[in-house]
Amino acid sequence: MHDMIFYIALLFLSVFISACSQIILKKAAGKKYASVFAEYFNVPVISAYTIYFIAVCIDLIALKKVPVSYIPIVEASSYIFVILLGKLFLKEHLSKRKLIAMCIIFSGVVIYFL
How far apart are CA 28 and CA 41, in angstroms? Predict the structure, then answer.
């Protein structure tokens, strides 16, 4: 059982890392670049895709022990991570609807794992 908890935690870590990658890409997309080449080949974009690749590798490790049926539930937490990271790093507005949606998603994840 402890093995399963560890690998489920790895899945959540992977989702969090993926959300971080999305935030970096969104922040990079908001900048102006001198050329199309510079727009796609710069430190933030390459770092974000590298981070995303690491998240995929962690996913593959976790899926050795975690049933595939858990993936949609764990992946749903990415919405929560993206909203919170967007608020923290991009100063995005956290509306009442977003808070309600986050609570519903969080409740669903918790209920599933109980």
Answer: 11
